[in-house]
Specification:
The chain has one domain: 2,3-Dihydroxybiphenyl 1,2-Dioxygenase, domain 1. Helix content is about 15%, strand content about 40%. It is of the alpha/beta class. The longest helix has 12 residues, at about 15-25. It has a four-stranded mixed sheet with strand order 1-4-3-2, with helices on one face. A four-stranded mixed sheet has the order 5-8-7-6, covered by helices on one side. It is built from two helices and eight strands; from the N terminus they run E-H-E-E-E-E-H-E-E-E. Residues about 130-134 have low confidence and may be disordered.
Length: about 130
């Protein structure tokens, strides 16, 4: 039996704002919405392939998300790294690394911070997949 990562879930402080970020700027599409006691959730995914991102807003929490040091970054494969990065910057989100073509792998990468300060790595594959990308 093959194993795949199905989705991962991050806590957010404003579900609608985070949904707009991942949908309008990054390009994911809403798959489902769920409301359970004290939590509203949205699951987003690409049109084809890849995993899913679940956003969860705990209604009984206030204040910023405590990131700790467990989650380093969220890795997003995009078709247009420069374009996605520019949309994020134009919308007022912080860039922590401008788009750059890496010599080590055939990719262009950039980093932005999402509405809750999660580090989002935008990766555009330029030719062959980097090692371990499958």
């Amino acid at each position: 039996m093959a194993t795949k990562v199905g989705q991962y879930c991050i806590n957010v402080t404003d579900l609608e704002r985070s949904e707009r970020f991942y949908e309008d700027i990054v390009g994911l599409k809403v798959q489902t919405r769920t409301q359970i006691e004290n939590v509203n959730e949205v699951v987003l995914a690409a049109d084809k392939g890849g995993g899913r991102l679940q956003l969860a807003q705990h209604l009984d929490r206030t204040g910023p998300i405590d990131h700790g040091d467990a989650l380093w970054k969220v890795y997003m494969i995009v078709d247009d790294c420069i374009g996605v990065h520019q949309r994020a910057v134009d919308a007022g989100f912080e860039s922590t690394m401008e788009p750059e073509r890496l010599d080590r792998w055939p990719v262009t990468v950039a980093f932005i911070l999402d509405p809750d300060g999660y580090s989002i790595e935008l990766v555009q594959r330029d030719g062959e997949d980097p090692p371990g990308a499958n």
